[in-house]
Each structure stands twice: as C-alpha cells, then as structure tokens.
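hiii so um. not sure if this is the right channel but i have a protein structure encoded as tokens and i wanna go backwards to a sequence. like what aa goes where. can anyone help
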C-alpha cells in the first residue's frame, strides 16, 4: 500500500482515545487528494482495523458481542419482530418496550422535580419562539414522513441538538438546565443525546416508525396535555401521558402517537442511557459511535472531493 494508507493505519492502531482518531482522520483527509492514495484498498482494510481498535476499548461481553455483530463476525437477528433500530442494535439487551420510573434508578429520584419543571417550561414557552418542523423538508421523499415534511403539525424547540446547547434558551430555564445536568443523558454524540420540546397539533397522528438504537430510552416529561384524545403506542401497547410522571420507552420498537383532541400536546423529550447498560458499556459505546461516525464521515468527504475534482 501507499504511504498515506500506511500512515493512517498506524495512527489508528496507536490511537488511545477519540481525539487521536479524529486527528488521524484529519490527517488522512488533508493528504488524501495530494499523494498516492488507494481508497478502495484502505476501505477493504477498515473493518478489521476498526474492529481491532474498538475491541481494545472494552472487554465487557455485551460490548464484544455487539462489536462482532456490527462487523459481521456473528449473525445479526432482532430478538423481537417489533424492534428494528435503524442505526445500532445492541443484542445483549433484553427486548423491552416500556419502562417505569422504578426500573430506572438513575432517573427515578428526579421525578419529584417534574411539577416545578413543568411550571418553568409553561412560563417560558408562553412567549418563546423558535419552534420549527421536526420532520425536515428532505423527508418529503420518504413514504413514512412525506405528509409531515417541513410542516408545523409536529414541531420542536431544541434545547440540545448534535452536541450544541441552545444557551440563550437554557439561561431562561435554570431548573430544567439543572435537571438535565443530573439526568443520565445518553452521551453518544453525534446521535445522542437530544433534548427538545415537542408540540403536536390537534388532529395530527404520527405514523408508526422505529428509532435509531436500543442503547437509549426516550423519556417524555408532560408539559401541556389535552384532557383526552392524546396517546402514544409502543410495541402495540397504547398509553397516555400523566402530569407529574415520566413516560419512558425504547423507541427502537415500532411506535406512533396521536393527538385527536382540540388542544396542542406539549412534552419535553430527552434521551437517557438504557438502565441495563453498565458504565463500561456506556463508555465503550460512546467511544465506538464517535469513532465510527468520524471515520465514515471522513471517507464520505474524501469521496466527495474526488467526485468534484
């Protein structure tokens, strides 16, 4: 292989953290268009290279199982037909759709704060702008999301998105800010966590869909609810929001929501780690997601530059 491929491989093999992987990717991108670079040969080496790097991060059997499944060394199969995450499936976790506060020991002590948070959010949202369609215009090509693409029927006000906090908004939400600082947010950038206020207009139904991964749970904190006619269905079981209580579920299961009332439904939504993941698994998964995203994004940028030249 040429010197560029060798140099990148050596840097990944020596990398001890995500920052070192990022530096290697920046090095590769800077040199990929300036010297002898066999992209196809490097791409063929990447699965073995990344598997070896990530295997050195954690020895937990659940993480090692996921790693082998992700790289095709073991067969992949969902343990429930209703659970089909679109990005990352962690097979060691029991397929369970719903979670109550008692089964989430890190989150349960925070439930007592919900009434105060709700009052703070109601006061700030009374004059807060910044809501935008949750489903992007690009989704108009999707048979699932075309009817909601770029429409305010389902809108969001983002507190945290792709690692960036809305600092101006959080300055007006000190109780919410302190609460989220203590919540076990699924720190798996750039895909999680996400925190936003979600509004669903009267008469709107969200189609059944699957989330990104089963390593995190989606938690709803009710802010403003219709008296009736509003529900969410996960894995075939329908529930309603209740003031003062979290509603938590694994969104890798098929789920949908409906607001058949005459009043908007408003909830705060945030991602937390699956409670059955041990700390070593969480750290290893955060590392793995960051590394895989960085390498894949870098290769895509190199391809884009090659196509443009």
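sure thing!! here u go:
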């Amino acid at each position: 292989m040429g010197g560029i491929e060798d140099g990148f491989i050596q840097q990944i093999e020596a990398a001890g953290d995500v920052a070192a992987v990022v530096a290697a990717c920046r090095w590769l991108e800077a040199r990929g268009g300036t010297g002898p670079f066999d992209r196809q040969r490097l791409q063929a080496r990447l699965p073995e290279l990344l598997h070896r790097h990530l295997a050195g991060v954690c020895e937990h059997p659940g993480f090692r199982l996921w790693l082998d499944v992700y790289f095709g060394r073991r067969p992949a199969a969902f343990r429930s037909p209703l659970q089909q995450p679109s990005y990352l499936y962690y097979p060691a976790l029991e397929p369970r759709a719903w979670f109550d506060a008692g089964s989430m020991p890190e989150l349960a002590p925070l439930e007592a704060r919900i009434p105060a948070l709700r009052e703070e959010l109601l006061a700030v949202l009374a004059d807060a702008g910044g809501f935008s369609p949750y489903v992007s215009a690009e989704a108009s090509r999707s048979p699932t999301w075309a009817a909601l693409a770029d429409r305010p029927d389902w809108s969001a006000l983002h507190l945290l998105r792709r690692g960036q906090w809305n600092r101006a908004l959080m300055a007006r939400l000190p109780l919410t800010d302190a609460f989220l600082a203590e919540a076990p947010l699924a720190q798996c950038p750039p895909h999680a966590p996400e925190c936003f206020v979600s509004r669903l207009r009267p008469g709107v139904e969200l189609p059944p869909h699957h989330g990104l991964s089963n390593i995190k749970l989606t938690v709803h904190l009710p802010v403003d609810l219709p008296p009736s006619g509003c529900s969410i269905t996960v894995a075939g079981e329908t529930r309603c929001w209740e003031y003062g209580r979290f509603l938590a579920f694994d969104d890798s299961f098929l789920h949908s929501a409906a607001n058949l009332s005459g009043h908007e439904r408003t909830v705060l939504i945030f991602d937390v780690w699956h409670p059955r993941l041990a700390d070593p698994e969480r750290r290893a998964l955060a590392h793995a997601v960051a590394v895989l995203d960085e390498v894949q994004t870098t290769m895509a940028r190199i391809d884009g530059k090659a196509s443009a030249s």
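oh and The chain has a mean pLDDT of 94.
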